[in-house]
């Protein structure tokens, strides 16, 4: 099963007024999935722009992805050290101003450490790294990164992490649920003990989304699990920006 | 050089699977009578200069903003009186 | 303690030296004195002792390994052969691939997590040092009995270590093995392999030439890790040293290594190095002497410039330290600034520690005083060579006479059914997903096939879909029965696995795990296995590009089974043509390729059902293996088959069950004429595979097999939700799945 | 119930990549004057019954064989006098 519409064709004019829609992908020391994410952006039809953690400048990108990996080796806590990079200062400002930001796995961990998203990520309840093809339900299409999915749609994308257990206090969880900010939920099995089976969430404005599984590893039928269920993330943002 | 220790533990209401795994293993290894185990982190900081009020305040801030994630963790800052090991 | 300088050594010729404690033999020590024409300094003694250890010098194995060169088949693909950090093969379109397997057995028994982790770190640096981007890792592993309490300590630690390091580096784990056998109880085998990809023009070699060029050490600071580890850990059994003297183990920092990889690749891209070497066993002793020896010979190093983690280290210790995540580069002076800038960008510490000199001496200084003055070749490449005595063990005849054909076979269909379930659910035959799910197999986005497929496969060019495949195999039970044949069976199986995935086997690497070379019986096993492997490679046309020898794998007097592990690398022009193992389409026809004979010696069935090891291993026919491989590759390229699975331990039934579970479809099998159901299901004859053929392709496929003389027997059809052997039994997939998938978690989780 | 704490730290000669990463990050966050950081583990054990010599001996053994990996780690066993937090 794939996201509903097929990949968008490259639009000729993006909101940055510079031609293509530019999606930045940040590399921190220890980031692993940056090249894969750049590829996914390209396959979706946008222009991938590598961003470096030491720069402050976002190179006029229209959206930013914080990719997966082990930035700073996941030392201290996953995402804890990257959060303080010069680039993140700009990303935080821009995210607050409405720029679409997607955090995948380690990127999600960075987003919780910056408090752009509530809660925190802890060691999986079974204490092991887990790599599997994970089924998810897309709970809402009302975010910058999920508009190309239908609410309730089930997708399967790779999951791979050791610190993937999402926790937050009850009040926060209730709030997330009430405001429709739980974006993805684990189906069939909860792979890490995340509270309420939460796999991904969004901020109040819906422009910042974080999730543990990896859509960028599910954009080509040939590699990975052989599914393309993750492509919708990147086509969603493309359409949103074209129509903006 | 003085040593300051920051102990970081998960808040009591947060599930600690590492501590639980330890606790569950104990009876199998023949250790009875441990009702609960929590596992946290210990940071030993070697501080240059005097460990006065101001230095401690800075370390407190460092713990709060960086060493611990106060969404899930509590911390305690202690000046280590005698860096020699108490036992072992 | 006063510094033992060259001057001091000359003035005190009779000073006592701890050569024996450092593992040197009397005649070796005498030879060092002869080479230097004086007694060695402490630093020189440290260097020679570690570089002349079994682990670094291959002194016991060298005379046998020579055959890999002498019998090497003609191969256009070989770009760099044995002798470098790793071999390099041409895979077409301007790409070159480098790969190698190494052991980290003894460290992993002492400290499973760090031992295994640093094993991955070491092999990855070898690959990086060739100029390549590492693109995948594999991990052939062997442990003691699955239900032994110590296996619960060792295995989870090893697996977490391999995952912890490899996952953090962003290298997909695409294959390996997990084998349990009591013979590995005190000696687990942790082998790790890595594959790297580069363009032909990016190949780098480990040599220091060009006087005036700078020697730059970069990466982690040097600490007291594993000092003496190489000589003590890898050359002697640890019983002899006792736990109290266990040297400090090395601790890995995969984050540092990831930075080292990215930094080094950027340095390569700008063409800034003239020579490069990773630091592994024997640390700086090894890197400096090897670089100098392979180059023009002269090098001067100021050892006190080495950045330290522990300021109290002596110069000898700095030379011996095995601190991980370090590399040594030879850089022309005009490139030094740029080199340093790239290191700074990646937060990697880099220090000029010396330079290449005119002469032919490796000279090392400590605070201005000379502590080493040696001809580097005598340290790195002209170590001792032993012609160890070897003899066929007395027990070998009795073992081979104890034929598995005599074992009682199942008397009823019910008993046969029960034995099938027992075999597919035995620890060695069961699903290893509990282990492999702890490894990232998706990272880098190029993984086409990974566990539990026959071979791992990665795409290396996104435009053309060029890819490479790798499989590793080794069956210690077969090799124990007959080391010559056992080594060839390991080769044949890995070769067959690569071909079954659709890739063309090109070259191999190996990791030879054996007991003590001081035991003539073990030495005979080693000699036989290397001879078998060299002959086999010659026949198959797959050169040995490099590898590793691990000796002294034994507990007391008892050696492990001889365990040659072979990694075969293959190439596939278009990965969209790969063949998976999954039976998925109902109605597809199942064909058994090859001949099935009464071969049960060393089989999974004899082990699981009877706890028996005896007789002869299956016979090897390498011409048949070649033919089978050609058919599998053609069939994949031309779209004649949708699935293929090689047959090996556990026989046909094991392969069919795995393919059914993978694809979620059942199979109905018919026992071919002339075979008993038992032999059909459990025989381990080599040179066989099972394939799923779409009906539309049947004629074309059988015509091809017929024309080329490969026996192809139609044995059934993909269908339903059970595995049925007509006239014998049926087992629902769910029941098979439970037996196959819950065994390992049941033992280890 | 009494609390016994076991602090487990990497031996001084063993590389501590976590501690290093933390230390290197501090100046960037504006915290100067920390010469070294080591990161270890802290186990809090809730002990049933009296924490006498015998109990401590058992905990010591437990630490030695299980909580710490003495190949690379040292440990200290301490009876926590006042389980209330000292600060924070
Ligand atoms: N079993 C073997 N088969 C083929 N080549 C081997 C084998 N063992 C060692 N070699 C080769 O000998 C050389 C030295 O090996 P090794 O010391 O493991 O390399 P390194 O110094 O990079 O660790 C390498 O080129 C290696 O590939
Ligand atoms: Mg090497």
UniProtKB/TrEMBL annotation, chains B, D:
ATP-binding listed as a keyword: yes
Subcellular location, principal: cytoplasm
Catalyzed reactions per annotation: N(2)-formyl-N(1)-(5-phospho-beta-D-ribosyl)glycinamide + L-glutamine + ATP + H2O = 2-formamido-N(1)-(5-O-phospho-beta-D-ribosyl)acetamidine + L-glutamate + ADP + phosphate + H(+)
Pfam families noted in UniProt: PurS
Record's subunit section: Part of the FGAM synthase complex composed of 1 PurL, 1 PurQ and 2 PurS subunits.
Official protein name in the record: Phosphoribosylformylglycinamidine synthase subunit PurS
Enzyme class, first EC level, given as a word: ligase
Job of this protein: Part of the phosphoribosylformylglycinamidine synthase complex involved in the purines biosynthetic pathway. Catalyzes the ATP-dependent conversion of formylglycinamide ribonucleotide (FGAR) and glutamine to yield formylglycinamidine ribonucleotide (FGAM) and glutamate. The FGAM synthase complex is composed of three subunits. PurQ produces an ammonia molecule by converting glutamine to glutamate. PurL transfers the ammonia molecule to FGAR to form FGAM in an ATP-dependent manner.
Keywords: ATP-binding, Cytoplasm, Ligase, Nucleotide-binding, Purine biosynthesis
PANTHER family reported for this sequence: PHOSPHORIBOSYLFORMYLGLYCINAMIDINE SYNTHASE SUBUNIT PURS (PTHR34696:SF1)
Molecular-function GO term, any one: phosphoribosylformylglycinamidine synthase activity
């Amino acid at each position: 099963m794939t996201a509903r519409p097929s990949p968008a064709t490259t639009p000729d004019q993006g909101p940055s007024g510079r031609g293509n829609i530019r999606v930045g992908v940040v590399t921190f020391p220890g980031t692993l999935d940056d090249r894969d994410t750049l590829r996914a952006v390209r396959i979706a039809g946008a222009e991938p722009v590598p961003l470096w953690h030491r720069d402050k400048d976002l190179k006029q990108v229209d959206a930013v992805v914080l990719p997966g990996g082990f930035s700073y080796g996941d030392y201290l806590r996953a995402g804890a050290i990257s959060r303080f990079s010069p680039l993140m200062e700009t990303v935080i400002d821009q995210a607050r101003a409405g720029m679409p930001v997607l955090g995948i796995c380690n990127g999600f961990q960075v987003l919780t450490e910056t408090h752009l998203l509530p809660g925190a990520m802890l060691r999986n309840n079974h204490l092991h790294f887990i790599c599997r093809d994970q089924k998810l339900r897309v709970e809402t299409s009302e975010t910058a990164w999920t508009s190309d999915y239908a609410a309730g749609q089930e997708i399967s994308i790779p999951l791979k992490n050791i610190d993937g257990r999402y926790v937050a206090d009850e009040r926060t969880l209730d709030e997330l649920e009430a405001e429709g900010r739980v974006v993805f939920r684990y189906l069939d099995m909860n792979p890490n003990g995340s509270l309420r089976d939460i796999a991904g969430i969004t901020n109040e404005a819906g422009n910042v989304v974080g999730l543990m599984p990896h859509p960028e590893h599910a954009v080509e039928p040939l590699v990975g699990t052989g599914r393309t269920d993750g492509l919708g993330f990147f086509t969603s943002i493309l359409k949103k920006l074209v129509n903006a | 050089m003085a040593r300051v220790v920051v102990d970081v533990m998960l808040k009591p209401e947060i599930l600690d699977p590492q501590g639980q795994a330890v606790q569950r293993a104990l009876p199998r290894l023949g250790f009875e009578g441990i009702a609960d185990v929590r596992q946290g982190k210990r940071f030993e900081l070697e501080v240059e200069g005097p460990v006065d009020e101001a230095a401690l305040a800075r370390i407190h801030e460092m713990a709060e903003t960086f060493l611990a994630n106060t969404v899930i963790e509590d911390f305690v800052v202690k000046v280590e009186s005698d860096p020699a090991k108490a036992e072992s | 303690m006063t510094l033992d300088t060259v001057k001091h050594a000359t003035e005190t010729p009779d000073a006592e030296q701890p050569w024996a404690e450092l593992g040197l033999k009397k005649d070796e020590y005498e030879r060092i004195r002869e080479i230097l024409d004086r007694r060695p300094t402490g630093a020189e003694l440290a260097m020679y002792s570690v570089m002349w250890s079994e682990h670094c010098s291959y002194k016991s194995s060298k005379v046998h390994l020579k055959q890999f060169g002498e019998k090497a088949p003609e191969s256009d693909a070989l770009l760099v052969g044995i002798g470098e950090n790793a071999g390099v093969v041409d895979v077409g379109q301007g790409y070159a691939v480098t790969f190698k397997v190494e052991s980290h057995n003894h460290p992993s028994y002492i400290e499973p997590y760090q031992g295994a982790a640093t094993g991955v770190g070491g092999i990855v640096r070898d690959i990086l040092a060739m100029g390549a981007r590492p693109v995948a890792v594999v991990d052939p592993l062997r442990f003691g009995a699955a239900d032994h309490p110590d296996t619960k300590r060792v295995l989870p630690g090893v697996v977490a270590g391999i995952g912890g390091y490899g996952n953090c580096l962003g290298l997909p784990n695409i294959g390996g093995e997990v084998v349990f056998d009591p013979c590995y109880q005190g000696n687990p085998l942790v082998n790790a392999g890595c594959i790297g990809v580069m363009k032909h023009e990016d190949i780098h070699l480990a040599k220091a030439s060009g006087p005036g060029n700078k020697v730059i050490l970069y990466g982690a600071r040097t600490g007291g890790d594993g000092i003496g580890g190489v000589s003590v850990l890898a050359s002697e059994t640890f019983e002899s040293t006792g736990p109290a003297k266990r040297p400090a183990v090395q601790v890995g920092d995969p984050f540092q290594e990831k930075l080292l990889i990215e930094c080094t690749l950027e340095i390569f891209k700008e063409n800034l190095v003239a020579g490069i070497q990773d630091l592994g066993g024997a640390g700086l002793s090894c890197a400096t002497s090897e670089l100098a020896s392979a180059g023009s010979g002269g090098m001067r190093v100021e050892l006190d410039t080495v950045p330290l983690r522990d300021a109290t280290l002596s110069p000898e210790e700095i030379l011996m330290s095995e601190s991980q995540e370090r590399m040594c580069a030879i850089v022309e002076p005009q490139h030094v600034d740029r080199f340093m800038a790239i290191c700074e960008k990646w937060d990697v510490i880099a220090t000029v520690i010396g330079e290449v000199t005119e002469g032919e001496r490796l000279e090392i200084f400590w605070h201005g005083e000379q502590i080493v003055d040696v001809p580097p070749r005598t340290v790195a490449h002209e170590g001792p060579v032993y012609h160890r005595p070897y003899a066929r063990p007395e027990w070998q005849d009795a073992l081979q006479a104890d034929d598995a054909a005599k074992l009682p076979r199942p008397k009823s269909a019910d008993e046969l059914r029960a034995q099938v379930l027992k075999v597919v659910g035995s620890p060695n035959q069961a699903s290893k997903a509990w282990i492999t799910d702890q490894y990232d197999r998706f990272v880098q986005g190029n993984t086409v096939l990974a566990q539990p497929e026959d071979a791992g496969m990665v795409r290396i060019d996104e435009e053309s879909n060029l890819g490479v495949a790798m499989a590793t195999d080794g069956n210690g039970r077969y090799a124990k029965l007959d080391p010559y044949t056992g080594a060839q069976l390991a080769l044949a199986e890995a070769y067959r696995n690569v071909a079954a995935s659709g890739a063309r086997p090109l070259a191999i690497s190996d990791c030879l795990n054996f007991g003590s070379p001081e035991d003539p019986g073990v030495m005979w096993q080693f000699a036989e296995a290397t001879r078998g492997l060299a002959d086999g490679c010659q026949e198959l046309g797959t050169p040995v590009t490099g590898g590793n020898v691990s000796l002294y794998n034994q507990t007391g007097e008892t050696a492990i089974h001889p365990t040659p592990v072979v990694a075969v690398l293959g190439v596939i022009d278009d990965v969209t043509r790969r063949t998976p193992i999954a039976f998925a389409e109902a109605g597809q026809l199942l064909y058994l390729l090859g001949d099935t004979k009464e071969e049960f010696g060393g089989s999974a069935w004899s082990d699981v059902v009877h706890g028996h090891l005896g007789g002869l291993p299956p016979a090897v026919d390498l011409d048949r293996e070649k033919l089978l491989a050609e058919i599998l590759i053609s069939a994949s390229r031309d779209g004649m088959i949708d699935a293929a699975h090689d047959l090996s331990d556990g026989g046909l039934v094991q392969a069919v069950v795995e393919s059914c579970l993978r694809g979620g479809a059942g199979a109905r099998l018919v026992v071919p004429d002339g075979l008993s159901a038992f032999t059909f299901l459990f025989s381990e004859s080599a040179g066989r595979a099972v394939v799923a053929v779409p009906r539309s392709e049947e004629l074309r496929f059988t015509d091809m097999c017929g024309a080329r003389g490969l026996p192809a027997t139609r044995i059934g059809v993909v269908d339903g939700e059970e595995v049925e052997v007509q006239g014998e039994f049926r087992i629902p997939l769910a029941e098979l799945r439970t037996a196959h998938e819950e065994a390992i978690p049941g033992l280890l989780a």
